[in-house]
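Bump. Still looking for Proline dehydrogenase structure tokens.
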Amino acid sequence: MKALKDVGYRGIILEYALEVLKSEGGNVEKDIETWRQGMIETVQMTAEGDFVGLKWSGLGSAALDLLQQNQPPSPSMDKAIREVCDLASSKGVKLLPAAEETGTKTGIDEWSFNLQKQYNNTPGKVVLYNTYQCYLKATPATLARHLAAARRDGFTLGIKLVRGAYLAAEPRHLTLATKEETDSAYDSIAESLMKRQYGGVLAPLHGIGSEAFPAIDVVLACHNAVSVRKAQALRSEQSARGEPKVPLVYAQLQGMADEVSCELVQAGKAQLDADSEKPDIDVPEVYKCATWGTTGQCLNYLLRRAAENKDAAGRTKESRRAMAGELWRRIRAVAGLA
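Sorry for the wait, here they are.
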């Protein structure tokens, strides 16, 4: 974690590599305690301003059943969850629940959303987020409902925006037909959030109009260089015009799209060097997601990530091209040709 921060990343998203397989039975109370201890230790390892990634299904197969049935957590689960939330709140650490598959999505939304009402009700302080998958057709409507509820109830909506990682397991009628449609939906929602304006695919809950946004806090979890550059260009334009900006950070997995992360870090350093005296300078805040656990836990985690990223071969072409360009730049620099 220290080494990543030394590179220039604003902070870390630390995940506890606990996976629950659908076929597992398990001991309910033991499963809850394993999750609780792992999450407490994860939060304790982080510093103020860091994030902790989590999965509600990590509480065990009983939790998975409750999520699938859209039922609230059991009393013992709720107690463990709130202990983790209380510790994170006291440390200034933020919690990022994963979206998981659509079979559990409604339950996950409910668990995360209800916790946001309690822990995100202090102005300027966000503890809990919810993850929105842009490849799902229902996501704009779901997000609109949550935005309206946050405005009505007066709390900050924490939003982690992703394209989605479970395409192979999702019913096809629930997802957008092409990658291009997903890319367009992601960029459109990201723009609406950054401008705090409805438009594009994100319409207000009660129809077309000028319905106001609530306070929001955004994590753009994205390995797509085009989307990241669009977002940062808009942020820079807002800074140049002196417009207020929503709290926003960028996030990528450790070892994936590192060239995208480093491009943001480098841009931030260049801006600081050139305009350090400007009060409205927009330095991108970049976070890397890293994972810890036992060898067995981490292997299960990596197997899931491998299954989620079967299309990664196409993305690695861009990474290889970026690394080759950087290697060539360094060779020229050593030779005095740069």
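The mean pLDDT is 89.

Edit: fixed formatting.
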